[in-house]
Amino acid sequence: MALLIPVLLLVGLTRAWWLLIILALLGVLRWLGLRGWALGATGILLWLAAAGAKWRWPESILSSLIAWRVETMLITLALVVLAVLFTLLLRYLHSRSAELPQSGPGLTPLRGAAQVAPPDTRPSDDELMRYARHIVLRELGGPGQSKLRKAHVLVVGAGGLGAPICLYLAAAGIGRITLADDDKVSVSNLQRQVIFRSSDDGRLKAQAAAEAMRALNPHVEVTPLMRRITEGDADLLRQFDLVLDGTDSFAARAAVNKAAVLAQVPLIAGAMSQWEGQVTIWDPARGAPCYACLFPTAPAAGLAPSCAEAGVVGPLPGIIGSTMALEAIKLIAGAGQPLRGRMLIFDGLWGETRTIALHPRADCPVCGGSGHSVSG
Ligand SMILES: [Zn+2]
Above 90 in pLDDT, residue 370? Predict the structure, then answer.
């Protein structure tokens, strides 16, 4: 009824008596039981028929009732249809996001999820539009997006892997992201660390990356931590649902692994050199091996050179880091089969991928092969 007054005003001002006739016809059809899409489609057909009659028989009595030009009629129809579609889309997204999650399907709920959840506010219209492509995914939907929003993750290292990890996690709407790195941006980083600009040269990586993430998505909370993660950081790691390790030395990875095993937090790890990279999830608390199960001792000097020594092709960290961000989203939302106990190996030079199974080692010095940490 509230719509009737502006419509009548429009009809009176523009002498669009044909519009009144169409509305009257639709009213009768509605009274006869026609509803929803069928009623809308009938309205569009009547409108098009009026425009067609005006165009075909401009001199007829019927056309004299239609004061509007044919172009105006068609443009108005297009605008009305667009407005209706937009309203329906918003309504649909609201209804999908209203289904709040109970627990992760097929997955052990991630540690700490209950404690870190921010207040259960309804997502804003901007968030609904921003995450629309997630919300329509069957495996994510409103509940999955809501889990991403409540998640708290730690990214270790804002280098080649950290750059795509941070950008994609922020863009995906991971509610709270902490980024640890004590390094500064240098020009030689810019060939692959796409989160930085040339003007960031000399700035602290954690700070510059946090700014880029906030600029990309103001709905996520980013905390830069200007220091390294050591094996004594188990208490810190316990605050997170999961950790992503983008460091590039044995010592740094072993330290993050030790802390993650003690904290019983899943650790998504990526590594790469030259043209090849790997991704897996170290998670002894849930049956998967830890880093030390496979690499208990440091490699001999020169056997595992860093990116600075051996070189790395620019887009490779993009592929490996994005895969790590994808695993994080899967793990948080409980979608698909995460790379737990499996390692994905990507060979960029030959364009090949393969996956190998990984098993815990009973005599692992860090996790003891069954998730019971024996050292700290
Ligand atoms: Zn182990």
Answer: no
Which pLDDT belongs to residue 24? 86
Sheet containing 242-245: order of strands: 221-225, 176-180, 152-156, 242-245, 267-273, 276-282, 342-347, 352-357
User: Cα of 316 to ligand 1 centre, how many Å?
Assistant: 27
Q: Where are the domains of the chain?
A: 4-98, 151-357
Contacts of 265 (CB under 8 A, 6+ apart): 111, 237, 238, 240, 241, 242, 243, 285
Pick from 40-54, 57-71, 105-119, 213-227: least confident: 105-119
Domain 151-357, classified CATH 2.40.320.10, yes or no: no
Cβ proximity of 236 and 223 under 8 Å: no
What secondary structure does DSSP assign to 6-58, as a single string? HHHHHHHHHTBHHHHHHHHHHHHHHHTT--HHHHHHHHHHHHHHHHHHHHH-T
Cα 372 to ligand 1 centre (Å): 9
**CA 237 to ligand 1 center in whole angstroms:** 17
Q: Ligand 1 centre and the CA of 142: distance in Å? A: 36
C-alpha of residue 26 to centroid of ligand 1, in Å = 71
CA of 248 to the centre of ligand 1 (A): 19
**DSSP letter (8 states) at residue 185:** -
pLDDT at 372: 47
Sign of CA dihedral 25, 27, 33, 36: positive
How many angstroms separate the alpha carbon of residue 64 from the centre of ligand 1?
Answer: 85
Residue 365 CA to ligand 1 center (angstroms) comes to 7
